[in-house]
Amino acid sequence: MDWSRDYEALFQELRYRHPLFEVDPRAREAQEYVASIYESLPMECKGSDCPIAARCPISDRLDILGTRCLLEIREITTRLARYLQDIGLDNITHTDIQIAAHLARIDVLIWRIEQVLSVEGMLVEEVTVSGNRSVTRQVSNPLIHELHVLMREQREWMDELMTSRRSRLERAEREGKMEKDLVRMLQQMAKRSANVLVSEESDAPALPPVNQSGNHSEEGGSS
User: Which of 188, 40, 168, 14 is nearest to 101 (CA)?
Assistant: First the structure.
């Protein structure tokens, strides 16, 4: 990717770069629906002062200071597309989109913590002061606890996603069965109607033969 382009061009490419958004208009509609994530979630670019500046290819660019983090915009797009793909865009519901958006949000927060941990490390120094003495020791990075909380929430929403998906499939199966039953019933009705017509025709009294004058002749002679 060409990171040298201006911010708006990068933003638009990252927002729509996933093939799913290019080929399926329903995916783009879903992305437009959750557009507020792009406004509220990405952290503000702090350039070289960002905690993950060492992992960012554009942290040295002064023209993007104060804008929404492009790396997180990339993560939002990728993760949202994957969830929409997993759910399936056929008959996607409002609830499905909300769950996908919430999972994408959680995923990005997890990604953010993981990036900071990759820079800071799993252990940090904790200084304890007692009187004139100070003791420094290595303790677990408090972000690890936040990471575990988010992962638990992620699993809960994954379960919700699977439940929603299962319910939709079961509903579609029921509706498909109902449609088949309706077709079968209509076919049976049409068959019965045809049988009734055949029966009525076979039970109707036969007309006497027609003579050359065009009148029906009567059995037992003529006058």
Answer: 40
Contacts of 134 (CB under 8 A, 6+ apart): 127, 128
DSSP assigned state of 129? E
**pLDDT at residue number 223:** 44
Cβ pair 99, 162 in contact under 8 A: no
**CB-based contact 156:130 (threshold 8 Å):** no
* In contact, 139 and 126? CB cutoff 8 Å: yes
Please tell me the distance from the alpha carbon of residue 177 to that of residue 217, in angstroms, as a whole number: 58
Q: How does pLDDT run across 60-83, given as a tens digit for each residue?
A: 999 999 999 999 999 999 999 999
Q: What does pTM read for this prediction? A: 0.71
pLDDT, tens digit, for every residue of 204-216?
565 565 555 555 5
- Number of helical (H) and strand (E) elements in the chain, helices listed first: 7, 2
Domain boundaries, the chain: 7-162
